C-alpha cells in the first residue's frame, strides 16, 4: 500500500506553521529586551483574548476546562518559559528543551489510564533524559541549571494543558485557546505586579519601542491566530499521523533561527544534545505508526 502524502500546498502550509512556532523563540528574545517576562506573557494572552472572544463563539466545553488550560498554558508554560528566557537559557536551547512536553504528555496519559510503559517508550524517554543531561553538564553563561529547570517545568505545564484539552473532546483549538486566554492573562498580570513590581512594569512599557510591540503582536497574530488556525485546518483535512510529525521540525527552526539571527553558537555538545532529544521524540511519536504500518 502506498503511503499517503500531504499535498504540496498543505505541506508548505504546515511547514510555515512550524517555522513560525520555531522562530518565535527569537521573537520572544526580542520582546524580553525591554518588557519584564511575566508582563510580556500577560500582554500576549490579553491580545489573544481580546477581541477574539467577541469574534468566535465559546467552545462547548466546561468552563473548568478552559480555566485549567488557560492557567497551565499561560501562567505555567509561557510564564515560566519567558522568565527562563530573560537571562537563564538561550532561545535555541529553550526551543529544544520545551519539546520534552511530549514525554510528559505520554507519561501523564499512561498514568491516568493505568497503562504500563512499553519498551520503545522507555528508549525514547532515556534518549530525551540523556539529551537534557548533556545540556545540564554544559551549562554556561547563556544557559544555567535554573533556566533548564524552569523550561522543564514549563514543558510539564504544557503536558498538563494537553491532557486537559484532550479531556475536552474533539474541539477546534483556535477558539479554545482564545477563550482559555481569558484565564491566562489575569494571573500573569497579577504575578507581574507581585513579582516584577510596578516600577519594572512602568519602565518596561516606557522603553518598549515599535519592535517590542511588534514582538507582542506576533505572539498573538502569528504564533496563536495563524498557527492554531492553520494547524487545526490541516488536522481537519488529514489524519493526525500525517500532520503532527511536522512539529518535530520546531526545534530545528528554533535553533537555526537563534544561530543565524542572534549568533547563538552551535558547539558539538549542543548538536549532540539536540540529536538525542530529537531521536527520543521521533521514536516516541513515530514508532507506533511504523509498527502499525508494518503489521
Main attributes of the structure:
14 helices; mainly alpha; 295 residues; 0% strand
Question: How does this model look, in words?
Answer:
The protein is mainly alpha-helical and 295 residues long. It has one domain. It is 78% helix and 0% strand. It is built from 14 helices and no strands. The longest helix has 27 residues, at 268-294. The protein is globular, with a radius of gyration of 19 Å. The relative contact order is 0.21.
Question: What's the short version?
Answer:
The chain has 295 residues and is mainly α. 78% of the residues lie in helices and 0% in strands.
Sheet having the most strands: none
As a percent range, the share of helical residues equals over 70%
Strand content: under 5%
Unreliable stretches covering 5 or more consecutive residues: none
Count of folded domains: 1
Mean pLDDT: 89
Rough outline: globular
Subunit organisation of the chains = single chain
Amino acid at each position: 500500500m502506498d503511503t499517503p502524502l500531504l499535498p504540496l500546498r498543505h505541506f508548505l502550509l504546515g511547514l510555515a506553521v512550524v517555522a513560525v512556532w520555531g522562530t518565535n523563540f527569537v521573537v520572544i528574545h526580542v520582546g524580553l529586551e525591554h518588557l519584564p517576562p511575566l508582563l510580556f506573557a500577560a500582554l500576549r494572552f490579553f491580545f489573544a483574548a481580546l477581541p477574539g472572544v467577541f469574534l468566535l463563539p465559546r467552545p462547548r466545553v466546561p468552563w473548568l476546562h478552559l480555566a485549567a488550560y488557560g492557567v497551565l498554558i499561560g501562567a505555567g508554560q509561557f510564564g515560566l518559559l519567558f522568565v527562563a528566557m530573560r537571562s537563564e537559557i538561550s532561545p535555541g536551547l529553550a526551543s529544544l528543551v520545551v519539546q520534552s512536553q511530549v514525554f510528559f504528555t505520554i507519561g501523564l496519559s499512561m498514568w491516568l489510564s493505568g497503562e504500563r510503559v512499553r519498551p520503545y517508550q522507555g528508549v525514547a524517554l532515556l534518549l530525551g533524559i540523556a539529551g537534557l543531561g548533556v545540556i545540564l553538564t554544559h551549562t554556561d553563561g547563556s544557559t544555567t541549571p535554573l533556566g533548564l529547570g524552569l523550561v522543564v517545568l514549563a514543558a510539564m505545564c504544557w503536558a498538563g494543558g494537553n491532557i486537559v484539552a484532550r479531556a475536552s473532546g474533539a474541539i477546534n483549538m483556535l477558539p479554545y485557546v482564545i477563550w482559555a486566554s481569558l484565564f491566562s492573562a489575569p494571573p500573569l498580570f497579577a504575578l507581574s505586579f507581585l513579582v516584577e513590581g510596578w516600577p519594572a512594569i512602568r519602565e518596561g512599557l516606557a522603553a518598549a519601542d515599535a519592535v517590542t510591540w511588534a514582538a507582542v503582536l506576533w505572539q498573538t497574530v502569528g504564533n496563536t491566530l495563524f498557527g492554531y488556525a492553520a494547524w487545526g485546518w490541516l488536522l481537519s483535512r488529514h489524519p493526525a499521523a500525517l500532520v503532527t510529525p511536522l512539529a518535530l521540525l520546531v526545534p530545528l527552526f528554533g535553533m537555526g533561527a537563534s544561530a543565524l539571527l542572534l549568533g547563538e553558537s552551535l558547539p558539538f555538545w549542543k548538536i549532540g544534545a539536540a540529536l538525542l532529544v530529537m531521536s527520543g521524540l521521533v521514536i516516541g511519536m513515530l514508532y507506533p505508526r511504523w509498527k502499525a504500518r508494518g503489521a
